[in-house]
Amino acid sequence: xxxxxxxxxxxNQFQVALDQSGSDRTTLKxxxxxxxxxxxxxxxxxxxxxxxQVFPEILGVDAKLTLLTELMPFEDFSNEEIIRIVENxxxxxxxxxxxxxxxxxxxxxIIFHII
Length: 115
Prior knowledge:
Elements: H1 7-20, H2 26-45, H3 51-71, H4 79-89, H5 93-97
Helix pairs in contact: 1-2, 2-3, 2-4, 3-4
């Protein structure tokens, strides 16, 4: 796994994945761009005073972008279906990634409280 050293490195990995998907994914490109814009706004506005409100939103954007790249290769899903799945499932992404059943009580970690 490549270590991400800059915001551009982070964003580029999602853009490369989208470019490699090969299909007509114009709608997904628009969605990706909107999430990157939101990500930029959240980072620019984060401060010591609002960290606990903003950081869960940043984690939410990260979960959305990661889910997006995981679903893109499935050509059975339309662009709209992928976006719908991402928007419905992103809040549970880290819980599932950590091996939790959605009914299980999670640990008191910030990654389980995304917005």
